[in-house]
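Model: Ready when you are.
Researcher: Fold this.
Model:
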Amino acid sequence: MEVIDRFLPLVGQSFFLLGPRGTGKSTWLRRQVGQALFIDLLDPQLYRAYQARPERLIEVVRGNPSQDTVVIDEIQKVPELLDAVHLLIEERSRLRFILTGSSTRKLRRAGVNLLAGRALRKTMHPFMAAELGDRFRLEQALRQGLVPAVLAAMDPEEVLRGYATLYLKEEVQAEGLVRNLGAFARFLEAVSFSHASLLNVSNLARECQVERKVAEGYVEVLEDLLLAWRLQVFSRRAARAVVAHPKLYLFDSGVFRSLRPIGPLDRPQEVDGAALEGLVAQHLRAWAAYSGERANLFFWRTRSGSEVDFVVYGPDEFWALEVKNSTQLRTQDLHGLAAFHDDYPESRQLLLYRGEEQRLVRGVLCMPCERFLRRLVPFEPLSRAIG
C-alpha cells in the first residue's frame, strides 16, 4: 500500500507517540522527520547496547550536535533512557525527542512524568475513513479493521490471525507482564465477548477461572498494551440513576473479529453489530485525540435500561449518537435518544445505520454510517460530518 497521509499533526516540542503495533508510527515519522537521528530499540544489537548502558544515549546525542530531533522507537523496552532524555532536554532546550511506544506499562512504572511536562502525549490510531478516502470500504473495515500493517499485507486475514499471538510473544511473554500465559490467552478470547458491552470483571474472572483481581489485572495489561480502552458513563447533572460499569472496546474492529470465536450458537447480527459500534467508537476516539481532546467521549445508560451508545461532550460539542446495524429504521431505535434528549434538551441527536438514505425521523437525524465516517475529520465539528 502506498503511504497515506495521516491526520496526526506534528508538534514542535518533545512528545511521546503511543499506539498499538502496526498503526504506522514509524512510517509516519520517517515521512515527517526523515533527517532526524533514529534509534530503533527493536534492533536486537541496539537494544542490548542501550539496555547495558543507557548513558550511551547522552554520548550519541552529544556526538551529533547538529541534530535537533531524536527519535527513539519503542522506548518502553529501555525505560531507563528517560533519565538520559530528561538530562539532554535540560541541557539543550531546542532539542526535540520523539519517543514512540506500543506499551505504557513500563513507562508508567518508570515514571513517565519525570519529563516534568516537557513532553506531550500523542496517540496514533488505526486509519480513519477520511484518511483512506475512496479506498475506504465499510464491509472491509468491519471484517479486516483499519490497522495499516494489516491493510498493507498480502494476506490481511493471516496477519490479523497472528496479531494477538505477536503481542503474546513479544510483549506479554517477553516482558513478563503476566504469570500464566495460557490463562491470559483464554482471557483474550473471553474479553472479545465484552467488546462494545458493559465490562463485568467478575463475569470475566469466572469465564477464565481466575480470581477477580487477576482478571482486573489482565484488563489493565490490555489497556497498557493499547489494545483496549474503557468508555465511562456520562453522569453530568444526571436526572436518573446511571450504571456504574464502563464499556470496553478493543482498539480495532478487525482485531475484535480475529479474537471473537464464532460458532453455531452465535448470531451473526450480534457480532456484526458489535463490530460496527466498535468501528464508530475508534473513529470518534481518533477524531477527539487528533483534535487535541477538545471533546470527550462517553456513553449513557440508566439503571432502568435507557441507553445511548455515545455521548460527545465538550465546549462546542454535545451530541448523543446511536449506532444500529440495520438497513431499516424502527421507532424503538429512537427511544434511547429520546430519553437522553428529555434529560438533556441542550444536546443534539444522531442515529447511524446501514441504510442509504439520510432522513429526519421524529426530530432525529438518521444518517448512513459509512457516509458519516467518511466525512468525520479532526479539527472540524461533528456537524460538518453531517453536511
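Researcher: Now this one.
Model:
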Amino acid sequence: MMGQQAGAQDQLFYSFGLETHIPSDHILRSIDRFLHLGALRQHLSSFYSHTGRPSIDPELMIRMLIIGYCFGIRSERRLCQEVHLNLAYRWFCRLNLDDAVPEHSTFSKNRHGRFRASATFRWLFDEVVRSCMAAGLVKGEGFAVDASVVAADASRQRGVPSSQAVDWKDPRLSTRAVREYLEALDAESLAQALPKNISLTDPQSRWTAAPGGPAFYAYSTNYLVDAEHGVILDVQATPAHRTAEVESAKTMMDRVEERFQITPVRLIGDTAYGTAAMLAWMVDHKGIEPHVPVWERWQRNDDTLPSSEFRWSEQADEYRCPQGHPLRREWRAFKNPRTHITKADTIIYRSSQSDCATCPLKERCCAKHRLVRSCAASMRPRAT
C-alpha cells in the first residue's frame, strides 16, 4: 500500500541532540578534534572594553570563518545563512538549534578592525603550526617555497597606465583598498617600482601575465612548506611581482626562525629564487643549502654572442671580450676612491668606446658596451 506523509507539524516537544546527527567521519569533526581556541580570548582581551554590552563571542566568529574557508563560502551573508540552516555547521560553532547566528556585518567590522589590528589570523595560523610541531609533523630539515597567482577582484577596464596622474582624493576612489594603498606608499613599501598599469579599484594588485594568456590584476600567495609532511609553516601575500615573491621568502624564513626557532638545512625553490642576491642570502647569511636552479641568461636565441664569452679575471678585476678588449669598473683613478656599486647592489663594467667603435663583432656583441656583475654572490654576470 502506498504511504502518505502526514502534513501536520504540530508536535511541541522533541528529543533532539546535535551530537548524534553529525556523522563520525565528517570533516568538521576531524578539524574540531585538533582546533584549540582556549587562548583566543586572552589574545584579544586588550582589544575589548571591560564595560558595556557583551559582544559576539570571537571564537564563534573564527569557527564560522573556518567553515567558510573549508567549504568555499566567500560571501559573509551566505555564510551566516548556511550556519543557520546546516546542523553540522551549528555543531562545529557550538550553537544550539535556537541560538541566533551573528549578522554578516559583524564579520566585516571585526575582520577589518579588531581581528586585523590584533593579528588574530596570524595568531591562529601559528597555533595550528605549533600543534603540527607537537604532533611530530614538522621535521624542520628542508623547506620548500613557491608562489601562487590569485586573481584580484578588479576589472581590467578599471585600470590606468602608471604614467597617468590619478587624483586619489576623488571621493569616487575613497575605498578601503585605496586607503591601504596610499598608506603603503607613505611607508615606501610599494614605491620601489611602479607597475605598467594601476587598478583604480584595488591599486595594490599587480598587472601580470605570469600564468600565460591575457594580463590581469593579481596577487601572489607565497607559501613556505616543511618538506617532510607538507605542513605550511608560513604564508605571505604580495603583489604579483617576482621581486616581491623572492623577498617574501626571506620574510617568511626569518619569521619562522623567530617564532618557532627553526632554521632549515636546505631550501627547495624554482628558478625565480635563483638570483645571485637570494643565493648569497641563503648561503652567507643563513647557512642554508639552496636546492634552486640558478637564474642564468648565458645562451641567447639570436645570433648575438652569449655573455659567457666574456672572461672574468679576479686578479685584474675586469672582463675580457672575445676580441681581447678589457671591460673595467673604472678607466681612470678618482681623487676620492669610488666603489661603483649601484643601488641594485651591482657593479657595471664598461669597455673603452674606442675599442667598441672599431670592433668587427660590434653588431653581434650582447654586452653593448657594458656588463653588470652582482656584488651579492660569486655568480657569472648577466648581460644588459
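Researcher: Key takeaway?
Model: Confidence is low (pLDDT under 50) at residues 186-191, 375-384.
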